[in-house]
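Re: Re: token formats

Sure, here are both.
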Amino acid sequence: MWSGDADYEQFEVHGWPTNMVVDLGKKICTCGFWQLSGMSCVYACTAMARAGKQPEKFCHKWLIMDTYNDIYAFHINPIPSQKLWEKSIYNRP
């Protein structure tokens, strides 16, 4: 249920065993999952569906595919087996 705020961002989501308060503008929910994980919780997704908004727009930027693709856009050079590494003159840690 929309709370009546001017920005259409605050909702009360009726669930079992309790109701949750979701603020889409602040990206918080009283269940705490959204704040801890950066991903929208079930209650936030319910509020987004009611508001006609996409859940992908509310995820942390580290959790979206574009960021993933940017991270792995470069190749990693292969390295030889540890047996072929040069021996160090220093003590092992």
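Second one below.
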Amino acid sequence: MESAPNTHLVSLAAGDLLMVLLTVPFTSIVYTVSSYPFGEAVCRASEFAKDLSLGITVFTLTALSADRYMAIVRPVTHHVSDSTGHVAIAVAIGIWVVAALLATPAAIFSNTPELVNPKGEKFHICTPYPEYLGAVYKQVHALVKAIMYYLLPLALIASFYVLMARHLFISAQFLPGEAAGQQRQAQARRKVAKMVLAFVTIFAICFLPLNVFNLWWHFAPNSRETYDIYWHTFRIVGFCLSFINSCINPIALYCVSGTFRKYYNKHVFCWCTRHSGRRDWEGAESTGTRITTAVRTEQIPLKMVGTDNGTQQPPAHRLTLTNTTVLTTKPHHNPASLV
């Protein structure tokens, strides 16, 4: 758990849990009732949690891609550094702070205005766009969210993976005779890279419809007039996919990571599996400096010099044997132990 990918995965899981608990119940009920039944405080908290979770998700995926780039392109520097774990924790905390700052406008400006439908019936909605800020704020807000939460992160992630693919291709050409240990390490790093790529692909698919709808709704000059059942269905599908993203990440991780799958079966489905207690190398934890000292004392009869062929029984002499072994001098993370 001290590895950088695992630190980011814990942060990603916390953001997903925040989305599922604080946003999905209050947003989904909008499509089942005619008027928003909660007050303005719940509306602000729900919109803030939605933007916070979205920021945590996309920024964590970007950080995971950057970490995989460093692990594959510069494995020695990335592996030997003693501060890798501390840097990952600092980055995770920074992601939460930045995501909270970017979600602050949703907490400040979200409100529940009263509207009137064509039948003359009054109802309330929860919206992050106050009327007194005008249409320009809606357009700027939608455009900034599309750039900061979707287009820019995906461009950075794509750049990291293009550079990783180029490095792996060149390495496969010029290093055909890698040692077995190096091949296993490279294979483990590639597995983690594939895991991150799966997360990114799922994110890109899940949030594409919602971003397309928001940009169309706020920038198309006749969007209000052309809004029909098809656009309404497209909007609902976009909301559902954005929420499904928070639920599908652990499923994707279970499918692409053998280590995660093994420990998930062990701790969650423990009644279905029986383990012999053997600890294999794949799930080995990090090992710090450890010094083993073995002391053994034995009584060995020694032959006295000058006796008659050693027939006289000499007194037993104690001989103490001490063996000190330094097993390792640096913390070590087995690449295969990364989920």
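The radius of gyration is 30 Å. Residues 275-295, 320-339 have pLDDT under 50 and may be disordered.
- S.
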